Amino acid sequence: MKNRIQIHDNWQTPKYILDQIREEFGEFFDPCPVNSNFDGLEIDWKNVNYINPPYSLKMKQAFVKKAIDESKKGKVCIMLIPVSTSTKLFHEDILPNADEIRFVKGRINFNGFDTQGSNGKKYQSGQMDSMVVIFRTPHSQTQANSTSSSFNIGLTENVTHFPKFAIANFVKLNIKSNSPNP
């Protein structure tokens, strides 16, 4: 990570991941899209939300806490965030409130600036491992169009799925072996 230039904190989710989220959850609202003209922390979210927040600590914490608050209103919040299981945020906020945590095997190629500062480039691999955290209440489960227990994201063979408080009983799910070219 030494050779990474910190130019910005916004990374666009690859289209193939967004397509797979739509396949499982249906259409969604993105409260923090790249180059947004609104503040996703200051507005009410929709019934189903996909959040790939900025990865700086302050912004990531703010969006995780907002997702938890929105899920308590009966909304589904699907977050793609870096794996950081040793943090206070994970143990005090994510773990007690998440309905599902899915760890992605391999690293995601996000769209953004490269190490030389050019926009629109993809890294060969992301800087961090990723996890999908799903916050929802029992009421909100019926609002999502989720009919499948599989969630196909990533670059390699599988995702490890950890249901809340059942970490010892994980299920491996098949995913695409290669990401499609945009």
Keywords summarizing the entry:
8 strands; 4 helices; 182 residues; alpha+beta; 20% strand; globular; disordered N terminus; Rossmann fold; two-stranded antiparallel ribbon; 6-stranded mixed sheet
Q: Give the domain tally.
A: 1
Computed over alpha carbons, the radius of gyration is 16 Å
The coarse silhouette is: globular
Alpha-beta content class = alpha+beta
- How are the strands of the biggest sheet laid out side by side? 1-2-6-3-7-8
Q: Approximately how much beta-strand content do the residues carry?
A: 15-25%
The biggest sheet amounts to: 6 strands, mixed
CATH topology: Rossmann fold
How would you summarize what this structure contains?
By secondary structure, the chain is of the alpha+beta class.
